[in-house]
């Protein structure tokens, strides 16, 4: 019998915090001790209760809370910030299909996520309600079929694991029918923020595939990784997936060697390999999270002194038009 069920994660998602006042009350933090909220509600608060339960009660500076608390500072764009900081729009190969690099292309499967990260570079992407429409998927699949140079399909978003298993199973089957594809990569924050999403049924879909599977999760701070997250990563690995982690270097969250060291060790214990540490993409209103490159380089040098090389993530930046992620430093 399944120990986790699809109903459970969907119920958890429905029950997520959507009102800042309710999250503040849950954390025993007076709203007066938190940054003032933006006037606009275009990218509203969204936090699963399980993720909120990993925040420190009574601490308005908690690093997990800082990632999700809407802040009036988001309304102010610095001159170098952009709505589309990494050139997603100019990389469109078909509606909802991006190709920036050789041999792989990325499907923007949905605009929905289980959490709204305030620094998200894709928060202004023109998702539309037809993102999962059959006609759109047919065009994306045809783009994979007609380009034999593509070896890897990347399902991203939003968060692809927010889609029902039936849709995911059908996407995986369609991609398997493209003979030149060998790898399926899934970019998802759900194993971290809503680990119950990694159901046995989802794992069955992944393990039955002829494609090699990489799941790239997204954790920024060691406190995000608890026993449930480790268990979810374990289920993905048992299903045959390689599990990697990408983080974003964020001021006030993980801009310290101690935190990054503990993050790498927690990932290793959970079974996920540290992969990328991204320099923050300059999306509008994100400057409170920015860390100077020189500081990031110093942090990585310190990690190299403390950790084996396989636990030191690559510090990179995405630059529009470049043929790969660009190493910083
Ligand atoms: S889960 Fe990923 S896509 Fe969704 S808001 Fe967070 S960073 Fe953006």
Any overview of this molecule?
There is one protein chain. Helices cover 31% and strands 14% of the residues. Strand 2 (97-98) and strand 3 (104-108) form a beta hairpin. The mean pLDDT is 95. The chain starts with 5 loop residues before the first helix and ends with a strand. It is globular, with a radius of gyration of 19 Å. The protein has a ten-stranded mixed beta sheet with strand order 1-2-3-4-5-6-7-8-9-10. The chain is an alpha/beta fold and 329 residues long. It is built from eleven helices and ten strands.
Strand/helix succession: HHHHEEEHEHEHHEHEHEHEE
- Poorly predicted runs: none
Record field, number of beta strands: 10
Strand content: 5-15%
Mean pLDDT, to the nearest integer, reads 95
| Radius of gyration computed on alpha carbons | 19 Å
- Shape verdict: globular
Largest sheet: 10 strands, mixed
> Distance N terminus to C terminus?
50 Å
Helix segment tally: 11
Brief account:
This protein has 329 residues and is α/β, with parallel strands linked by helices. It has eleven helices and ten strands. Strand 6, helix 9 (227-238) and strand 7 form a beta-alpha-beta unit.
SSE topology:
Elements: H1 6-14, H2 20-26, H3 49-52, H4 63-68, E1 92-94, E2 97-98, E3 104-108, H5 134-145, E4 152-156, H6 165-176, E5 183-187, H7 190-193, H8 200-207, E6 212-218, H9 227-238, E7 242-248, H10 257-270, E8 273-278, H11 293-306, E9 314-317, E10 326-327
Parallel strand pairs: 3-4, 4-5, 5-6, 6-7, 7-8, 8-9
Antiparallel strand pairs: 1-2, 2-3, 9-10
Helix pairs in contact: 6-8
The protein binds iron/sulfur cluster.
């Amino acid at each position: 019998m399944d120990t986790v069920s699809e109903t459970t994660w969907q119920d958890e998602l429905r029950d997520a915090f959507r009102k800042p006042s309710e999250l503040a009350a849950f954390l025993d933090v007076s709203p007066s001790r938190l940054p003032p909220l933006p006037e606009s509600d275009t990218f509203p608060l969204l936090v699963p209760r399980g993720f909120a339960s990993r925040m420190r009660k009574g601490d308005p500076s908690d690093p997990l809370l800082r990632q999700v608390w809407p802040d009036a500072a988001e309304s102010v764009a610095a001159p170098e910030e952009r709505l589309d900081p990494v050139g997603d729009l100019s990389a469109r190969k078909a509606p909802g299909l991006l190709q920036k690099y050789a041999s792989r292309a990325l499907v923007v499967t949905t605009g929905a996520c289980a959490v709204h990260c305030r620094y998200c570079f894709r928060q202004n992407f023109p998702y539309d309600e037809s993102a999962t429409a059959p006609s759109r998927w047919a065009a994306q699949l045809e783009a994979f079929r007609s380009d034999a140079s593509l070896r890897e399909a990347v399902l991203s978003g939003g968060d692809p694991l927010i889609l029902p298993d039936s849709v995911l199973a059908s996407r995986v089957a369609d991609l398997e029918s493209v003979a030149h594809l060998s790898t399926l990569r899934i970019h998802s924050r759900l194993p971290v923020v809503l680990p119950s999403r990694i159901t046995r049924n989802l794992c069955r879909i992944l393990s039955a595939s002829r494609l090699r599977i990489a799941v790239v999760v997204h954790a920024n701070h060691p406190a995000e990784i608890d026993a449930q997250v480790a268990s979810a990563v374990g289920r993905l690995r048992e299903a045959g997936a390689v599990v990697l982690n990408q983080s974003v270097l964020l001021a006030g969250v993980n801009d310290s060697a101690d935190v990054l060291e503990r993050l790498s060790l927690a990932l290793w214990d959970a079974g996920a390999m540290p992969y990328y540490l991204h320099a923050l993409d300059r999306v509008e209103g994100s400057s409170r999270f920015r860390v100077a490159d020189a500081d990031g380089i110093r942090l990585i040098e310190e990690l190299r002194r403390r950790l084996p090389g396989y636990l030191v993530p690559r510090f990179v930046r995405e630059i529009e038009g470049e043929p790969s992620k660009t190493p910083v430093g």
